[in-house]
Design a protein that fits this description.
The protein is mainly alpha-helical. The longest helix is centred in the middle third of the chain and has 15 residues. It starts with 5 loop residues before the first helix and ends with a helix.
Length: about 210
């Protein structure tokens, strides 16, 4: 819901609730609107009420999980996303949010397992590849990181993967290979502003002119 549509949406929700104050979908939507307006506490009240009326309402579990994630309550976020997946199956967008919650709790193995499952199900759902790369990088698991990175370059071919490769080589102290990654990225994306900017910064780090 865009900012300029919130007032109109709220009017519609009020009409729905006037017709039926126990309409769990309207109550959940009211919670979503409260979150969009920045009142996460009231949003949680509304979404929890919606779930009390219909505990199988997947959307409410997901929306409440997102709010918990925003508030830093990762355990409750993990519980809500898990419940949503139990109801709706392995939806990539929900699963990635569950993986983020696990990662924030320091449970990298659980997060990585979820990312792997999503990639197996939908190899073109890029957030899963990025999330798994970040876990491998954080754990300095260079073998798995590099294999997945090359796969990401083949599947998506966006500057992110060349920049991340360069970051890896810089972290490992191989400035020559860092520049090779940057050269390749610039060759493939010569008009991308971020790629050009990072390439120039890499030249400075590598001591080249």
């Amino acid at each position: 819901i865009e900012a300029n549509q919130v007032e109109q949406a709220q009017t519609l929700v009020d009409e729905m609730l006037a017709a039926d104050s126990t309409d769990h979908e309207a109550i959940a939507l009211s919670g979503v609107l409260q979150a969009r307006m920045g009142d996460n506490d009231e949003a949680l009240v509304q979404l929890t009420r919606a779930l009390e009326l219909n505990e199988k309402f997947t959307t409410a579990w997901v929306e409440r999980g997102r709010i918990y994630l925003t508030k830093g309550d990762f355990y409750r976020a993990q519980q809500d996303f898990t419940q949503a997946i139990e109801l709706a199956g392995l939806n990539p967008q929900i699963a990635v949010q569950l993986a983020i919650a696990y990662k924030q709790m320091g449970m990298d193995l659980e997060a990585a397992t979820i990312y792997d499952d999503v990639i197996d199900m939908d190899p073109m759902f890029e957030p899963a590849t990025r999330g798994l790369l970040e876990i491998h990088y954080g754990n300095r698991d260079w073998t798995q990181f590099y294999a997945l990175l090359l796969d990401g370059q083949r599947r998506f071919d966006v500057p992110y993967y060349y920049l991340f490769e360069a970051e890896m080589w810089s972290e490992r102290g191989d400035m020559g290979r860092m520049m090779e990654a940057m050269d390749t990225g610039l060759d493939r994306h010569p008009s991308d502003p971020e790629m050009v900017r990072e390439y120039l910064l890499a030249l400075i780090r590598a001591g080249r002119d």
